């Protein structure tokens, strides 16, 4: 059947009509217009009406009228005067914009024919006619219209299971297809339909690629028939061969068809059937090659142990066929690897299968997968919880200072206000992620959506399974494809994060006072982080000591004591006493005097009668909300302090008798900080003095949300349970509870009414507690005469007080005297210990080892004192930190907050993508001892490939992504054993804890991998990320021509240096490059694959060559990454078009290098994957258009290997 294109032709010499034109008779006379009617020849082509220069049909075209959004009328519109007839028959074209074009013909019949032709010439008219013809065709059919396989599965609420073994798989080929009337070969493509007897309809089950100009095509796409789709042996399969006349619109005409039963296909390994046209004539033949598949036998293997290469005498028969033109061996079955764990991490899988020819005469079976990660929204939700907790704790830290006097009062309130606004932003973003419904990926069409800005764009797993039995080789290859890690909705054209961070570092000069404050803030924050870490480690040591004491085992006690002594020495040397003295002086000078424990200061106002009125100030308004402080992490339900009863009273309590505030409103505000609406309410009421300088994106540096790593170790000692009801004896044991230590306000902050402890007293308390504890441990170990250990040698320097002179006040003088006496008392106690070292130890005098029954009870008081002393050290450090933060310049702090928030957005996207890649490797691959060795020694390599152009808005994306990838180096990953399958969580979920500067991500691993970890201990590692970017589109051409890519080139060189350092360390592991094990089969290193040393040398030469669009850098980096067991990430702006070109190219390059894909098949395989594979489906998921968003100009600018095949690109959303 031929396809005819209908064109409106004019009979005779053509249609003549008169066209009214307006011409200026005299240009100098404005408004002097003469109406002239001219006779012209016109021709209609589609929706274009051409009019010629004269009435001669052979004259040149003068203009064109586009017949869209217009109506044809015989009567003139109201705004236009009627056309004088003069024996002619006029009609009018009235456009939607109000324009009117008058036309006329020489007869009424001509006018009617022109009107009818113009009415159906527009696109809307053609589409209406097309729909009418389709309805007519459907009415002539006796069955329902075709539906595709995706729609069929949606109707049945069915999801593709990649672990399902298909009934069979087929490849197709045709021969002797008829040519057209001109002798040209067709462009064949086969559509496979399956008749579903249950629904009595045909389902389009699949289709092949298009082969250009061939009467004997062999198709590379294969079709897998699955029982889950409702197929049985009696299912009818229809093959229809089409001749594709136009690839863009997929306009095609049927050549012929054939219908067979699925059982006939299964029974024959090779079936050749005739193709019959509609007039029942034979137009060619169809060859169907069939092979069976079965699941890989895991029952007799030991996949939970390290994989071993099969012996040479293995008699197992594998699938192998010489070529598509020769029949396969009979009874051959292909074994598919098990991918049941893939659905634990990914959803909505899409699968495409291929069969390629190898240069050795065999076939290469390829299965291509694409799936959405379940972590796309859940992991950023966890990360936002960490940052929310951090902002709450920073808010609590500043409030713990107490209310300050002016000029610092307004800055303190402004600082609190910034934290509240940031709480609102983070809380709202977290709620948006939690409320998200639908697909588990963020489409590129929503990349500028602020509500989901913390989620990565278009995050997918791209997976390829390759099998070549001639080489006895099979393996999986994974890519994480994701959009650029950037804040699309934030301010652009500022260079991105890499420029903003650089500006923050260069903005303050060393002579500027703000630079000094910034330095002090940084020093205080670093000291707090170190104190928290050391405190946790000391408490861990005390836990082990407590366990050994309960068991009365002395082995191992003394090394723990030595480690505690070393760490407490570090604790005592962390702080500069001058900074602490400066902070304490500041607090005592500017803090409002509090006369009672109500939290109300002396800033009172008077009423008309002169009596004081206690009005709740903005500061007190905030601190009043801290009475219900659920400022602990949502994951920690233990709010009890280590030294107080379970039911803790309000920390910042204001007496109701002194406040002129309605009790109902106080009750309503009780939990404002626990909901985003409450935070919004606070933000609307709490304002600083200067509201114009308020920053929408504030940020801060320090976090306190910690979850101890001991909880991840099943062998750790759990001394207390946070859910138990605690009595007084239990309260005394809470000093070793790490959760309580992290969430308790009294263990981390001063109350506004507290008097800060002098620095010397804090240090002496720590020293005395450690001395006492170590002395008792040595006594229990049998060293009764061991002297006490001194942590510091210079005792004279400890005797002077750090309390400076304060304004004259009897209260302060009294407190100063008490503090001095306490310092003197503790110093005498410490010094007294060293004087009696010859006669024993004062801490152990009077103890009898034989009479001590409970060793743990003997050590517990000293441990409690040490914990309290370390808490005092942290509280003073926090107070110092908050003092310096209040003194920071507000505008500088706002700039830092803006950059910090943007950095959080980008980091959330990069970390989510990295965790998705890690979890895929841990769960969806067979255990590899070599990979475990790399994890435990070096940490894995993560290679990020980007195709952004260093021009326009993509400069910001590149800058954001550079910093986001670099920040991944600070994250620590910990492998923990996954709980049993009978668990509350159906999927393995990574957990994030720690603080912004020291995040810890706990990755659950299956038992098969956990058994390979040495000693089955907790394995922690850091990732080494490298980031290479090469632009490939027309904007990259422009940037390179302007010489504007130096920053990109410098970044690539820096990342090569990091990659080279990693390679040098990897080389020391002596891992063999000539063999590997994957999927239970031996993999010999292909002769076409270069060694690591050669690849590194080639990359060094290429990266310093300065070539234009040097994509060789990306190719070499990807090969190096795979050989060193690394992870591959590919990105562009939205991970859709350029990413699709890059991934498919890398897939085909792997087939060439490692599986001997025939050279003449390379371009065919590349075009097939791009036209029919998963990346084409990805464009449909993102933009609802199954085309790559490239135009003709971009196509010319792309490197040759990155160009899509014809018909797969066009006008689409970028």
Structure description:
The protein has 1214 residues and is α+β, with helices and mostly antiparallel strands. The protein contains 31 helices and 32 strands. The strands form six sheets. Strands 9, 12, 15, 16, 17, 18, 19, 20, 21, 24, 29 and 32 form a twelve-stranded mixed sheet that branches. The chain has a seven-stranded antiparallel sheet with strand order 4-3-2-1-7-6-5, covered by helices on one side. The protein has a five-stranded mixed sheet with strand order 8-11-10-13-14. The model is unreliable at 1-34, 299-331, 596-604, 627-676, 682-733, 793-817, 829-839 and 1075-1086 (pLDDT under 50). Belongs to the inositol 3,4-bisphosphate 4-phosphatase family. Pathway: Signal transduction; phosphatidylinositol signaling pathway. InterPro entries: C2_dom, C2_domain_sf, INPP4, PH-like_dom_sf, PH_domain. It comes from Zophobas morio. Residues 299-324 are annotated as: Disordered.
* Strand runs, count: 32
Instruction: Tell me the radius of gyration.
Output: 39 Å
Poorly predicted ranges: 1-34, 299-331, 596-604, 627-676, 682-733, 793-817, 829-839, 1075-1086
Give the N-terminus to C-terminus distance in angstroms: 38 Å
Mean pLDDT: 77
Overall structural class, as computed from helix and strand content, comes to alpha+beta
Proportion of beta-strand residues: 15-25%
In DSSP terms, counting alpha (H) and pi (I) runs of 4 or more, how many helices? Answer: 31
Outline the biggest β-sheet.
12 strands, mixed
- Binned, the helix content reads 25-40%
What overall form do the CA principal axes indicate? globular
Family: Belongs to the inositol 3,4-bisphosphate 4-phosphatase family.
Keywords: Hydrolase, Lipid metabolism
Enzyme class: hydrolase
Region (Disordered): 299-324
